[in-house]
Write a structure and sequence with these properties.
Layout (H helix, E strand, L loop, with lengths): L1 E4 L5 H13 L3 E6 L4 E6 L7 H4 L4 E5 L19 E4 L2 E3 L5 E5 L6 H14 L3 E3 L16 H13 L4 E5 L3 H8 L4 E4 L7 H8 L5 E4 L6 H13 L5 E5 L17 H8 L4 E3 L1 H5 L5 H11 L3 E5 L17 H17 L1
Parallel strand pairs: 7-8, 7-14, 8-9, 9-10, 10-11, 11-12, 12-13, 13-14
Antiparallel strand pairs: 1-3, 1-4, 2-3, 5-6
Helix pairs in contact: 3-4, 6-7, 10-11
The chain binds phosphoenolpyruvate and manganese (II) ion.
The site of manganese (II) ion has 5 residues, from loops.
Length: 333
């Protein structure tokens, strides 16, 4: 059960409300986010919710018989939208392209990408400065020096930044230089990290775990929301299956399922989803048709010499072609 509180609720009325809830054998979890104040109440017994709904300070009350509560659509039927400022919005009819290299490599590469994004009218640039690599000998990112440069060059052109945060200690140091925190699939169930991101007022895009189920992704989002941050996006990026003909199995079934279960925007990452540059375009288009609210795309001026994931990265010409096709698909839809 979710109770949305009036912001003006008095401490006395809040106490009374909590007492009434515990009387019907429900536990009370108080959640305050940037947007509202809630009580998430967990229990099994049937009772007439009107007995609580009429109390002072209750704005709204809903039974949510789902495994997740605050991220569920059973409670919030309208679609959530993330406002990044300067007219950049994600979700609820705002289809967002987030494009850039797998890794930030240096000043020239950032400048070249920003130039391409401005040319294409894309407002969000991706690029990792802390890279989770399977091998410790692979390029592991430029760290904060890279992020500061990335931030400076993007800000100058009105481009927003999404980049991966790998551990709790990075949340604070990265905070002022980014617009969206990306939680990578390897960290999808790093609950300490999710708790830390619940405490910041910056949007978070959370990727599905490499072998994660849809429910596990929703639980992870619930962690951040219940920690106080409801600016969330879910991301399907492919899961590990027995099939080895491509890098991951992009589970496009997850798109309509997630949108049915949750009010949060759903972003698809076809780059990691299939892992093959020559097949990225149809998967990006399929994700668009499936109802994605946006795409996370790896692009590079010369994918052949990219420091990471070049094999799944589009060059600028391929990127422009894809954007053209997406435009046509959106019109048809
Ligand atoms: C990335 O976006 O570059 C990345 C490492 O993604 P994932 O966490 O999906 O592997
Ligand atoms: Mn990558």
């Amino acid at each position: 059960m979710i109770i949305q509180l009036e912001n003006t609720i008095s401490p006395q009325n809040l106490d009374l409300l909590k007492r009434e809830i515990t009387n019907v054998k429900y536990s009370v979890n108080q959640v305050s986010t940037q947007m509202g104040n809630y009580l998430v109440c967990i229990g099994k017994d049937e009772f007439d919710i009107r007995s609580i709904g009429h109390l002072s300070g209750v704005k709204d009350i809903h039974r949510v018989n789902e495994i997740v509560k605050l991220v569920s659509r059973k409670w919030k039927t309208e679609r959530s939208q993330i406002d990044l400022g300067d007219g950049v919005k994600v979700g609820d009819k705002n289809f967002a392209i987030m494009a850039g290299p797998c890794s930030i490599e240096g000043e020239e590469q950032i400048r070249s990408t920003v130039k391409q994004l401005v040319k294409s009218g894309v407002r969000i640039m991706r690029g990792g400065v802390y890279k989770p690599r399977s091998s410790p000998y692979s390029f592991r990112g430029m760290g904060m020096d890279g992020l500061k440069l990335f931030s400076e060059l993007c800000k100058a052109e009105g481009i927003k930044i999404i980049t991966e945060v790998m551990q709790v200690s990075q949340v604070e140091e990265m905070h002022d230089y980014i617009d969206i925190f990306q939680v990578g699939s390897r960290n999808s169930q790093n609950f300490n990290l999710l708790d830390a991101l619940g405490g910041v007022d910056k949007p978070v895009l959370i990727k599905r775990g490499i072998s994660g189920s849809i429910d596990e992704l929703l639980y992870s989002a619930e962690y951040i929301f219940s920690g106080g941050n409801e600016k969330l996006m879910l991301c399907e990026r492919g899961i590990r299956t027995y099939e080895r003909a491509y890098r991951n199995t992009l589970d496009l079934n997850a798109v309509p399922i997630l949108k049915e279960k949750s009010h949060l925007p759903v972003i698809v990452d076809p780059s990691h989803g299939i892992g093959l540059r020559q097949h990225m375009e149809p998967m990006a288009l399929a994700a668009t048709v499936a109802g994605a609210d946006g795409l996370l795309l790896e692009i590079h001026e010369q994918p052949e010499i990219a420091f990471s994931d070049g094999q799944q990265t589009l060059n600028y010409r391929e990127f422009e072609q894809l954007l053209e096709k997406i435009k046509i698909i959106k019109e048809v839809l």
